[in-house]
Design brief:
Layout lengths: L20 H8 L3 E5 L2 E4 L1 H20 L3 E2 L5 E3 H7 L1 H4 L5 E4 L5 E4 L4 H11 L8 E10 L14 E11 L2 H21 L4 E5 L9 E8 L5 E6 L17 H12 L3 E3 L5 H4 L7 E16 L3 H4 L2 E3 L5 E3 L1 E8 H11 L1 E2 L2 E2 L10 E5 L5 H16 L4 E4 L5 H11 L3 E5 L1 H5 L3 E5 L5 E4 L1 H12 L3
Parallel strand pairs: 3-7, 19-20, 19-21
Antiparallel strand pairs: 1-2, 4-6, 5-6, 7-8, 8-16, 9-10, 10-13, 11-12, 11-13, 13-16, 14-15, 17-18, 21-22, 22-23
Bound molecules: '5'-O-(N-(L-prolyl)-sulfamoyl)adenosine (P5A).
'5'-O-(N-(L-prolyl)-sulfamoyl)adenosine (P5A) binds next to strand 8, strand 13, strand 16 and helix 10.
């Protein structure tokens, strides 16, 4: 993309309404625009990051054997009357009446709708296990939407629903989700710690939230720092293997890690004092096992291998896709701006032309642009007439992990400069070597 033809409305001033760094940086970097309280347009740069995150979520869901689909944002109220949640959900639910006087709602989640789909089409244990998911906009009329996309009213969520014949099978589905979520967050450059959680309006008695540690998080968290070093790394996981998934879950859930909702001082006191940590965290996902809470009242029954009709065991599993954009920035920025992890960056690198209009510099930048594109990389080429200082400031603000700087002085020596946004370190190398280096960095991403 050439910056002169792009739409990147960066702000010079820091917007007064933004209280936390991710909100400030998303506004300053021209990623979002607020349209109403807690409702945002995703401008081109923000939209690119949202899409990258969504792609990682899809990829890891399908790796775990989960099936993508799409349900609508608007739902009939009658489905929620069947489960009893139409009245229980309260004021967070946005209720709508259509021209025929029918009650609808803008979905805050989809347990009822998926249960309806299931009961219409599945009748036998032979069709289980089944996990269906979608990534769709949700609406919750939060009393205090704040912190930009972190606590929006309209927000983008991946929500997956599991159907199993009994509790053991459903717990495997739960474990499989936990493992796939750990992989998902790691690919985004995040460490998200699973913590025992309350179940709130979703229900059930088994639930974990995934928390990214950050001072601006809304939850207070308490944990054994033995968990902070755990990574899945390149581990290959067989998602059909119950023991393997259970072992990983055991590894991640044995050290103490809870939010203020479930915190127990007496149990925490058993962790050696030097390892006890308390801080704040951002909830980027939550998983639930709730058995037959929806299948029983809604009649989602299947025949088991003895020919008996039994309600199916269910769970639901969510990732805050739009919230993750903010959470990643909270975890990865400095005083100059955002620092995108390679896994989610909106462009793979920036190209800064120090002397726009100089035929040598222009030709070298065009050649770099073509060479990077031919390697499957997407550069953002700053071909504007801004002075070098302003170009660097924009690059630092929008946070692309790598920048190639091209100017007549370097070209006279046959080199360009490759700079890491994270370390700030630069290296002079030939344009060909710079392309090669970036292709290596992004291989497999
Ligand atoms: C699980 C999937 C559920 O709704 N039903 C379907 C279950 N869980 S949840 O914890 O309530 O939400 C899942 C994730 O969505 C994000 N989230 C939000 N993001 C931005 N703004 C909001 N107002 C908001 N509310 C929830 C969180 O990341 C949460 O973990």
């Amino acid at each position: 993309m050439r910056l002169s033809r792009y739409f990147l409305p960066v702000l010079k001033e820091t917007p007064a309404e933004a209280q936390i760094v991710s909100h400030r940086l998303m506004l300053r970097a021209g990623m979002i625009r607020q349209q109403a309280a807690g409702i945002y347009s995703w401008l081109p740069l923000g939209y690119r990051v949202l899409r990258r995150i969504e792609e990682i979520v899809h990829d890891e869901q399908q790796r775990a054997g989960h099936i993508p689909m799409l349900m609508p944002t608007l739902q009939p109220a009658d489905l929620w009357r069947e489960s009893g949640r139409y009245d229980d959900y309260g004021e967070e639910m946005l209720r709508i009446t259509d021209r025929h006087g029918r009650d609808l709602l803008y979905g805050p989640t989809n347990e009822e709708m998926i249960t309806d789909i299931f009961r219409a089409h599945v009748a036998s244990y032979k069709d289980l296990p089944l996990t269906l998911y979608h990534i769709q906009w949700k609406f919750r009329d939060e009393i205090r939407p704040r912190f930009g996309v972190m606590r929006g009213r309209e927000f983008y969520m991946k929500d997956g629903y599991t159907f199993d014949i009994d509790k053991d099978a459903a717990v495997h589905a739960y474990n499989r989700h936990m493992v796939s979520y750990l992989r998902t967050y790691e690919r985004m450059g995040l460490q998200a710690i699973p913590m025992r959680a309350d179940t709130g309006p979703i229900g059930g008695d088994l639930s974990h939230e995934f928390l990214v540690l950050a001072d601006t998080g809304e939850s207070e968290v308490f944990y054994d720092n033995a968990i902070a070093g755990l990574t899945l790394g390149g581990r290959q996981v067989n998602y059909d293997d119950r023991d393997e998934c259970a072992a990983i879950v055991h590894e991640w859930t044995t050290p103490y890690a809870r939010t203020d909702e479930t915190h127990d001082e007496a149990v925490f006191a058993e962790v050696p004092e030097a390892r006890r940590e308390s801080s704040r965290g951002i909830e980027v996902g939550q998983i639930f096992y709730f058995g037959t809470k929806y299948s029983e009242p809604m009649g989602a029954v299947v025949s088991n291998d003895r020919g008996e009709r039994v309600p199916v065991h269910m769970g639901s599993h969510g990732i805050g896709v739009s919230r993750l954009v903010g959470a990643i920035i909270e975890a990865s920025h400095d005083e100059k701006g955002i620092i995108w992890p390679e896994g989610v960056t909106p462009f793979h690198c920036g190209i800064v032309n120090l002397k726009q209009g100089d035929s040598g510099a222009d030709t070298a930048c065009e050649a770099l642009y073509a060479a990077l594109t031919a390697r499957g990389l997407e550069p953002l080429y700053d071909d504007t007439d801004e002075r070098a200082g302003a170009k660097f400031a924009t690059q630092d603000l929008i946070g692309l992990p790598w920048r190639i700087t091209v100017g007549p002085r370097g070209l006279a020596k046959g080199v360009v400069e490759l700079t890491s946004r994270r370390s700030g370190e630069s290296e002079e190398l030939s344009p060909e070597a710079a392309v090669e280096r970036l292709a290596e960095i992004y291989a497999g991403r």
